[in-house]
Protein: 3-methylmercaptopropionyl-CoA dehydrogenase
Organism: Shewanella cyperi
Amino acid sequence: MYPYSAPLNEMRFLLDKVFKAPAIWQRLPQLAETVDLDTAMAILEEAAKLNRDIVQPINRAGDEQGVRFEDGTVITPDGYKEAYQAFMEGGWVGFCGDPEFGGMGMPKMLGVLVDEMGYSVCNAFNLYSSLTAGAALALNAHGSDELKDLYLPKLYSGEWAGAMDMTEPQAGSDLRGVRTRAEPQDDGSFLISGSKIFITGGDQDLTSNVVHLVLAKLAGSQSLSLFLVPKLKVNDDGSLGENNGVSVGSIEHKMGLKGSATCVMNFDNARGFLIGEADRGLACMFTMMNYERLAIGIQGLGSAQAASQLATDYAKERLQGLAATGSNAAADPILVHGDVRRMLLTIRSLTEAGRALAVDAGMQLDLAKFSEDEAERAKAARFVGLLTPVAKAFLTDRGLDACIMAQQVFGGAGYIRETGIEQFVRDTRIAQIYEGTNGIQAIDFLGRKVTGDNLATLNEFIAELKAELAALAPEWQDKAGELLALLDELIASAGNINEAKREQPALINSVAVDYLDAFGFSLYGYYWIKMAALAQEEADASFAQQKAAFCRFYLEKLLPRARWHLSQVNAGAGCVMETGAELF
Amino acid sequence: MYPYSAPLNEMRFLLDKVFKAPAIWQRLPQLAETVDLDTAMAILEEAAKLNRDIVQPINRAGDEQGVRFEDGTVITPDGYKEAYQAFMEGGWVGFCGDPEFGGMGMPKMLGVLVDEMGYSVCNAFNLYSSLTAGAALALNAHGSDELKDLYLPKLYSGEWAGAMDMTEPQAGSDLRGVRTRAEPQDDGSFLISGSKIFITGGDQDLTSNVVHLVLAKLAGSQSLSLFLVPKLKVNDDGSLGENNGVSVGSIEHKMGLKGSATCVMNFDNARGFLIGEADRGLACMFTMMNYERLAIGIQGLGSAQAASQLATDYAKERLQGLAATGSNAAADPILVHGDVRRMLLTIRSLTEAGRALAVDAGMQLDLAKFSEDEAERAKAARFVGLLTPVAKAFLTDRGLDACIMAQQVFGGAGYIRETGIEQFVRDTRIAQIYEGTNGIQAIDFLGRKVTGDNLATLNEFIAELKAELAALAPEWQDKAGELLALLDELIASAGNINEAKREQPALINSVAVDYLDAFGFSLYGYYWIKMAALAQEEADASFAQQKAAFCRFYLEKLLPRARWHLSQVNAGAGCVMETGAELF
């Protein structure tokens, strides 16, 4: 992967043909003036260039050097400052931000692709701006006009960064235990005191200020409220004042993401400002979390794409062994070997379907935000809700799979740091854990999104998949038999769970991960049939052949995995919950 | 896992009840005097103590500090020397070694359990002695009496270490490309010149000499011969002479195993001695490789056991969230959550079945070596051949799965270095790669062991599994329906491959990994039914209940995965091989 080569053809195909973005953009007034396919592709080419030329070069060295913590100050690895400067000057931090406050107002369909590129070249670097974008989104949705006027332009420009302060040692997946306190002051502000851990980008030396969104409790309340707490005080004119009682206690030593500062944050009577209503902080934070959950899914996708490119390049270059079908060479590229091909086809078919999922989720976000049709907005919001936990969990699980499999393609070289692939394994591993573990995502998916409305959204979504499949050319519909059976079984299985969930309160928690996996592997089957069918209309014959070949591999080899997950779902919670705690 | 607590109950149960080791040892003359169950358990307790008190403490610090390379010398992390001294003085290096040369002559059934403990506390440290034991085995099997007299006692005592020098930059999985040369000398010795890479324990500061087993080519030959090449020359009286032209070029910077030196070795007219016949070096090396392959499988098992203990302990201690079934606590241990239980039951059921596989392979090695019945020896040798690639690949694949899943149980803490579980992920990852990648193992399994003799050994082995199942109490036989169906399908599928392999030369390479996985998941089903059935005879009711519960989980949730792998096997090579190389 030297240099990074962005999958621009695949991106254009998804936008133009699979999800018909130009038509969507055209009919949405806020986007019609902003972007068309040519603009989109020019933007993607620019992003590809920036990531290749400016960001990729800092990835390996940043992993070796890591973030340092000296005299209370976080120092990012060499080159991060320069790369951030270029990134910021390109306007990428506010790419999908609100134009009213200086954002570029770009659609998320495009944003996910720009994000993918960033994560393909450097997981650690990309996180800094990702959190800023998420914080800006939450502030824009729930903040007062004063706060928005003062903070949003600096966040969108990248001059200041955002951070998300939720976790405490005793409050991780379960935030009820948060102990950070907020005391109301006469001027309407609050004094925040407490400690937060695992704060990505809690501090750094890239931006002049860090804007923390902090979950804390008001005296006497067990509910959480959300506060904006700047590292440095901000004067009314936007200029920076003294330190606001915000300090870094330490930084974590981690398996990977070594260029990203993971901070213990201490708030000592730090001045904060309420975002949204008191005691409704979790709902506000979810605006940021949902954004971040999709972004973290894209971390998995970007890493998978890097793995795909690294392993494919290596398999074409590395000479070892002879083709089983015969060869006159001294040694053939390992691409000739069936097992190497199996690994590459697995990585690539999962990655390309993953990109379709990311763009699909981005499209639903755009429709939910920009559509003028209230029913369309509402439906898209339902689909965003359904797809967000799947995108977060399934893209990151398959992202790690892809990196580990790519490392296997490299053989012994894959274990050596200089080769680079092992860094992606380490860097992307966290994506399955943070922003709500993938187990939490699955429980959200099955418990809230699928059974929470008695399968209404699931049925609506699957009906749409079936309608899309029915619109394809007949020879492609013929390939969808097993997929259609799986979609019906997903509904049947969810129906059984929905009926049983009251009598078996632990059922959803016990089978959720497998249900999400069964859904994910089925959904990828849908994307593949659709992509392969539509690719046949492309002028480039080899593009069409490639998508047909990848689709065939996916349907024959990987789609059947959905059945194993469904069998685990249908086996229920008995064997999980009836084992006495003393037997563990 | 502070401190490490060895699974002695499980080990005793496997030896005594599942594999009936005492009866086997009693009837094999060379073992009857050496070991009985009481001795075995005393030895395991001693090994547990040593690993807990002496080896475990160096694991984390050794990962942080790593091996250093200064002025051509390899320096192991602090504490390695002292730990090695204790390990050596306990006689553990020559534990299964030939008593004629100072080995302890212990059965491999016991050896695998001692090895497991070592890998549960420190992957990197344990490798040094593992390579020595393997080198001694190959030397004992193929070396001249002079070489054996001179080298074996020092290897078994641990005073000198062994290393295995095969790989070169252009010769990894395919050793035809080896360029290291051997020139015959008048005195019957050879001068060896060339470079080898990825040499585990190529040098260190733990032993006074390193004995390299080097694959090289004689002038004019394309075949490989095996040579013993000591780092320091050895005088006839066993005293050490000057350097033998053996030097370390550099050490690798790796994802993990940082306490283990992975060396580039340079041989510059180094004096070597032929082991076995000229041009038959690969066959001799395979004695060592088969030993190492099982040992590396045990690396996966030991890591899985560490993961199991770490995750279980954490799940009992960590308070977060409330039980879905209701709770009056402020927060419950996360063990109450269905998804956490699912992960723990997955880790534990895979690890305990993995231990059964390791002991089974050890038993077959013992029978092949010690039985006085030629037919029994031959059959056991066939079963060793069949089980070795499965033990190497399946134990290491499931080992990584277990470590990653355990890391997930920890949530965010699992990504932090101090927690320790992430080190096991990094350390054990290499086990899927070295000693022949797991892809190579699978091709060996399906191509040589399963179809190589037209399924004769596979049929024989599966018939034995069925006979063992038929001897169980009826209620346990009733649970074996799906397993028996899978065993028949494994035979049918292998039969189809065997018939098609000539017309489809790439078939075996394309489906081998899935065939091995289908076999492995089925075999674990067999072990679980057998273990659970026999556990019912134990006096400890909770032990019996636990094994029944783990067995139930395995059969309901994990055994069905074999069907997915079989479906991939049966989908064949078409979708893998018919994709043109230009489409990648």
